[in-house]
């Protein structure tokens, strides 16, 4: 202990690389709180990835005929090539209707503890069934999804290859499984921050490091941590001070709707901050378009801290280092409809 202190004093006296010493302390602290995105897609329990299943999942993700109108696919609201979001406050779905919440990105969603702002689906597989039958999203029914796919001859082969040995492979369960396998590949590794966590001190510049230090010391990392810098736990929106009704309207009680527990009122899953500069607007209401404003609101609502402009700016710069390599997806060729294929109902 004593000798360590003396050693660092000597180092300081000699050539002032005290900064370097505390830099490596910052890296160690960061490595304890956050984890890098793995380079390849994680495997899903009970749902093996095979090339045929992955190819099918990709087709279904881009398949507008899974919606009643045949114009809305998963990609309509979670656009690959645009951060996995739709850039709307709340999504536009079936018959031009708006849903009640902002669409979170599908990128890296596989690493979250549960799906949706309120965590009502336990994983991607369970989640994928939701939008199909949601009246303001894709607006169809479970029976119709199966009918529709059975009415497109090319899918018989695609499902048979993806689920070899199944006597009746076109089922809703198998639709969900295939989509989940594809979504698990939508990950964004090698962000500057991941390289930093991997030991490359030069991956972050000086301001990004100051932002990281603030992100930790101010308390953001108490909730936004782990592999997704969030996504691992639930917390009230407004721990210290409830934001205004425009940003947090009283009608959406968040996780309370799932658990019916009073202490879960206005509790939401802490969102991932990965690729956050690509996924405006922010919060479950999508009411905040400026990342700086979102950071300042978090300071007052979650931590009771008024962050200075300078602090907000540094944290914003650090958050920019969370943008990873975006998945490159070749559009699938979808099997054609035939005369007997069920028609769209606009
Ligand atoms: C009309 C727009 C729309 C369509 C179409 C849509 N989604 Fe979503 N998606 C949303 C919205 C809005 C949410 C958040 C809803 C909530 O939390 O209550 C969401 C949530 C999700 C989530 C959870 C992400 C997270 O971080 O919690 C995943 C995964 C997802 N959607 C995948 C899909 C898939 C797969 C499809 C196609 C089967 C699909 N979505 C179709 C709008 C849409
Ligand atoms: C007590 C837990 C907690 C703390 C501390 C916290 N957050 Fe959050 N954060 C949340 C929750 C919960 C949400 C989702 C709020 C909502 O929309 O309902 C959120 C949302 C966000 C968003 C918007 C993300 C999106 O996709 O819309 C950003 C940006 C953010 N936080 C950054 C920060 C920063 C920066 C700090 C530190 C100044 C911080 N947070 C501190 C829990 C926390």
From TrEMBL:
Its main location: periplasm. Binds 2 heme groups per subunit. GO terms for cellular component: periplasmic space. Keywords: Heme, Iron, Metal-binding, Oxidoreductase, Periplasm, Peroxidase, Signal. Residues 52-186, 206-323 form the Cytochrome c domain. The keyword Signal applies. Gene3D superfamilies: Cytochrome c-like domain (1.10.760.10). It is found in: Periplasm. InterPro entries: Cyt_c-like_dom, Cyt_c-like_dom_sf, Cytochrome_c_Peroxidase/MauG, Di-haem_cyt_c_peroxidsae, MauG/Cytc_peroxidase. PROSITE patterns: CYTC. GO terms for molecular function: cytochrome-c peroxidase activity; electron transfer activity; heme binding; metal ion binding. Pfam families: CCP_MauG. Binds 2 heme groups. This is Cytochrome C peroxidase. It comes from Rhodanobacter thiooxydans.
């Amino acid at each position: 202990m004593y000798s360590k202190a003396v050693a660092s004093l000597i180092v300081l006296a000699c050539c002032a690389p005290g900064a370097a010493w505390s830099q490596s302390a910052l890296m160690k602290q960061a490595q304890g709180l956050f984890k890098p995105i793995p380079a390849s897609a994680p495997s899903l329990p009970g749902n093996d990835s095979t090339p045929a299943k992955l190819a099918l999942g990709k087709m279904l993700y881009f398949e507008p005929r899974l919606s009643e109108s045949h114009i809305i696919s998963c990609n309509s609201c979670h656009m690959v090539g645009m951060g996995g979001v739709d850039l709307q406050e709340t999504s536009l779905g079936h018959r031009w209707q708006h849903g009640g919440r902002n669409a979170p990105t599908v990128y890296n969603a596989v690493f979250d503890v549960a799906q949706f702002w309120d965590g009502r689906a336990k994983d991607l597989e369970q989640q994928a069934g939701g939008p199909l039958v949601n009246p303001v999203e894709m607006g169809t029914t479970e029976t119709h999804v199966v009918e529709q796919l059975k009415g497109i001859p090319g899918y018989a082969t695609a499902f048979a290859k993806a689920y070899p040995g199944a006597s009746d492979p076109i089922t809703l369960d198998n639709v969900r499984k295939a989509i989940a396998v594809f979504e698990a590949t939508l990950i964004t590794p090698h962000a500057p921050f991941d390289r930093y966590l991997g030991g490359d001190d030069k991956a972050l510049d000086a301001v990004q490091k100051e932002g990281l230090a603030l992100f930790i010391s101010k308390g953001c990392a108490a909730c936004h941590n782990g592999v997704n810098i969030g996504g691992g736990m639930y917390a009230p929106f407004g721990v210290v001070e409830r934001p205004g009704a425009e940003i947090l309207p009283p009608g959406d009680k968040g996780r309370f709707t799932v658990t019916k527990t009073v202490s879960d009122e206005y509790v939401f899953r802490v969102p991932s901050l990965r690729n956050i500069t690509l996924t405006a607007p922010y919060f479950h209401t999508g009411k905040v378009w400026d990342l700086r404003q979102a950071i300042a609101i978090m300071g007052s609502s979650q931590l009771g801290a008024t962050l200075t402009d300078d602090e907000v700016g540094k944290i914003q710069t650090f958050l920019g280092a969370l943008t990873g390599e975006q998945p490159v997806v070749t559009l699938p060729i979808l099997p054609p409809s035939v005369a007997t294929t069920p028609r769209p109902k606009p």
